[in-house]
Amino acid sequence: MVNSIEQKFPKDFLWGGATAANQYEGGFGQGGKGKALVDVIPSGNKRRDVMRGMFDYKELNEESIYPAREAVDFYNHWEEDIDYMIEMGFSVYRFSISWSRIFPTGEECESNKEGIDFYSKIVDKLLANNIEPLITICHFDMPLQLIEKYGSWRDRKVIDAYLKYCKVLFETFKGKVKYWITFNEINMLLHMPFMGAGILFEDGEDKEQVKYQVAHHELIASALATKLAKEIDSTFQIGCMLAAGQFYPYSCDPKDVFDALEKNRETFFFSDVQVRGHYPEYAKQKMKTNGIEIKMLPEDEMILSENTVDFISFSYYASRLTSSDPSKGESTGGNVIPTLRNPHLEISDWGWQIDPLGLRLTLNVLFERYEKPLFIVENGLGAADEVKDGKINDDYRIDYLRKHMKAMSDAMTKDGVNLLGYTSWGCIDLVSASTGEMAKRYGFVYVDKDNEGNGTLKRLRKKSFYWYKEVIGTNGNSLFVE
Fold first, then answer.
1. Which NCBIfam families does the UniProt record give (predicted)?
2. Disulfide check for 100: which of 143, 282, 312, 315 has CB 3.0–4.6 Å away?
């Protein structure tokens, strides 16, 4: 039975899943697609160095493997995969569009018709089955030529290329797509500059100066895209997106507490600008202290202030822990954003700390800070699934998801948070962004492929597939059945 204190989700709550072209779509060189940022990020021991912008991808050896080029080949399996989403009962599907599939180099005068047709078929199939498309415009993905010609987002010319791309998308999907996200996890450019924004550092370059100048250009691009969207269709809802998860202080030492405050500000900097429309004072002071000077045009402040987003979307996988004293505690492995090991939490196979209450905390902090609707667009457990007798019993994933879904229900029903929906990450297995592995799986549907690229790509429903179908079918009520 459902608990006596009802914790139901709103009737219009959006349930679904999320993927990204750079980890899922594949179709390298097919349909007129140009070479993209993700097509030069290898698997193996050089992956992190390339993603950080510390190793030039052009110096990789000929044996390098680039997992994004095939990924799990959604490009040729899209109908089958969407059928799985329909079967689970999705009411929303978050996916990204590959910029280089629309403009192969980023500078063509006309968009690539084959690319437009591909995404149009996806959107039409979703709408025919009452699934709301939620499109990420730029998800760690951009034409490689814009990187090689302009140094990526270092140059304001890339803003113009981005807006031309946005205009095609907005005009193509006017009246069909309501929800848009301008940039995926925009704050990740501080931690993985090449993966996040195509930034390859030059010898002796001031890395912090470059990162914050790039951030400014992306923030301006996001604001101008929001303006453009509203001019084309005033009903469009435009969101920002950040990699979220609160930093906890290691102890009640005020130095640790303040260190956590500063770490959290690194995340909030981007959404503060995108939601509030101006640079926060703490960011101005930090830049001044560190000698960072952002080159702005006279109209930039007005662009930011007049074109704020409608909702805040975010990924949440784990909370983090920090201390002012580097010698305190031990670090966990596998995390792109460094964190100390929290002794109160369990960890996943890849060292990510499992903290459902941390999701409720994150929801509360974001909603109190911005008082705008929120959308959880990534959440899930990366785990090594094993096929036994043709079945995958991923009870560990079900346990993780159930606890996190209950936490988001508590945030809505007990704390008053306005949450639009939830899209579980990698609803069908895909390539891990952080490690380039297939073994680190998130999906409700297994894809037969290994880390070396071998496999049939055959799809197989996991136990969690049927569990999530029931969650959606009962609008979350099954979560509370004793």
1. PRK09593.1, PRK09852.1
2. 143
* In the predicted structure, residue 1 carries a pLDDT above the cut 60: no
Query: Each residue of 267-304: pLDDT tens digit?
Result: 999 999 999 999 999 999 999 999 999 999 999 999 99
Percent of the chain with pLDDT over 70: 98
- Amino acid occupying residue 400: Y
Q: Locate the DSSP E strands across 270-318.
A: 311-315
Residue ranges in 244-299 assigned as alpha helix (H): 254-271, 281-289
**Residue 479: closest CA among 389, 416, 411, 398:** 398
**What single-letter DSSP state applies at residue 67?**
G
Count Cβ neighbours within 10 Å for each residue of 136-151 and write b for 16 or more, e otherwise: bbbbbbbbbbbbeebb
**Domains in the chain: ranges and CATH:** 14-480 (3.20.20.80)
Distance CA 364, CA 415 (A): 7
Give pLDDT tens digits for 67-110: 999 999 999 999 999 999 999 999 999 999 999 999 999 999 99
Q: What is the DSSP string of 207-230?
A: HHHHHHHHHHHHHHHHHHHHHHHH
Catalytic residue among 62, 378, 437, 482: 378
Told to judge if 378 belongs to the known catalytic residues of this protein, a careful annotator would answer: yes
Pick the closest to residue 461 from 48, 88, 53 (CA basis). Answer: 88
**H/E element holding 132?**
strand 132-138
- The answer to whether 383 and 440 have CB atoms below 8 angstroms apart is yes
Structure tokens at 290: 């560190």
